[in-house]
Amino acid sequence: MNADLELQVLRARGWRTLPTGSPTRLIRIDWREPVLRAVLHPVSGQAGEPLSCHMHLQGMDRGWADVGHSGWRIYTHLQHGRHLLQIRAAPGRRRPVCMAAQWEVWVMLPPWRRWWAWLTYLGFGMGGIGASWRAGRWCAARPGLDHVGLTQGMADLGHELRTPLAGLLGMLELLAATPVNRRQQRFLLAMRQSGELLLRLIDDALRPMGRAALRPAPFAPEALCMGVLELMSPLAADKGLSLQYRWLGACPAMLKGDAARIEQLLLNLLGNAIKYTSAGEVGLVACWRAGQWWLWIHDTGPGIPETERRRVFRRFVRLPATAGSVGQGLGLAICRNWVRRMGGQITLLAASRCGALPDGLGPRSGAMGGTVARIRLPLPVVEAAGMPASRRRP
Fold first, then answer.
1. Which residues form the Histidine kinase domain (predicted)?
2. pLDDT tens-place string over residues 60-93
């Protein structure tokens, strides 16, 4: 009896064939490849007669799937962990099984769910709790604490938070200097960017209210968008959402603005869209038009009622539908504050409204629900020597 099983995983450039000839029949799949295709080539018995084959993947198939003499099955959204793939064949449906084989398929955990990542989260949590406890004792020992004392207490708290964060960034630099592959370099870069953004947010929080200043500098707008999407893609993947990105028309090579604030703005809006979207997709559309940088963040979530779209920009305002989720109702208020300080405008629209997205763009799933956050930022183009001011995107 002869049987030939071919296992393939879907990557960005097509299907990749996995080795199935290991004596242990153990197959490891990367966490970024959750789509598995099992291809069974023609199976015949010892006498050359065709066999009817059945396939079963533990945790995915409810029963044995009939694939006939030769066929294939595709499994999507494989969960992390161990899956047992079994194949059996018989000369007919009611004839005894004359061939059975099985393989162990292991889908690896993503890096943010490994043991060392949980240790990092634990370190941050313990550091923050310890700093809060020490700051609380410091304030309790001074019942007549005035404004100067409160400022000093906040400075101490900021120092306590900065110290472990600076240590983490230093360890990331050391880790980046060791031999790592391209994928690991991407992970390290995303972790470092997140740490640097958190460090700046801590510094701004320690300044007197309203004193945090914009720091305009040249930056590449497309690279900023791609970096934000890289950071948000794990959250979208965990919920099974599709994360889309598109730039319309000419793309300026460099703009002048506060890249960290724009990154914070996009992280807040995309994070909200992913948090409140249970199925479908979340997308980012960008466009440069008439000296203005336009950004649209759209989703296929439940949407925001028209009567509530202005109210959600106030501090500590939360809609009844979001009462059970984590948050304090500050994200949109912070976003509007920074957009206004940049001289721009942010508006919430219904995704089904005509003109909510440019050129009739919308969710590919065809869903009529969802919300569109439209942002307009007046940022000047920086013309570098030897570099065009903009380039046409395909």
1. 156-381
2. 888 888 877 666 788 877 777 888 888 887 776 5
| Whole-model pTM over 0.90 | no
Pairwise CA distance, residues 250 & 217, whole Å: 21
For residue range 269-322, list pLDDT tens digits in order. Answer: 998 888 888 888 999 999 998 889 999 999 888 888 877 877 887 776 666 555
Chain-centre distance for alpha carbon 218: 26
Buried b (16+ CB within 10 A) or exposed e, 185-197: eebbebbbbeeeb
CB within 8 Å of 150: residues ≥ 6 apart: 139
Q: How many CB atoms lie within 10 A of CB 72?
A: 14
Q: What token pair was written down for 261?
A: 């604030």
Residue 365 resides in a domain:
yes
Structural domain ending residue among the three candidates 67, 84, 112: 112
Do 185 and 287 lie in one domain? The reply is no
Same domain? For 241 and 342 the reply is yes
Pairing of strands 390-392, 250-252: antiparallel
